[in-house]
Amino acid sequence: LRGNLLLKRGNAAQAVPALEEALRLRPGYSPAILHLAQAYQKAGREKEATLAFKAFRDAKEREQKGAPSLV
Question: Between vectors from CA 57 to CA 32 and to CA 43, what angle results, nearest 5°?
Answer without folding.
Answer: 50
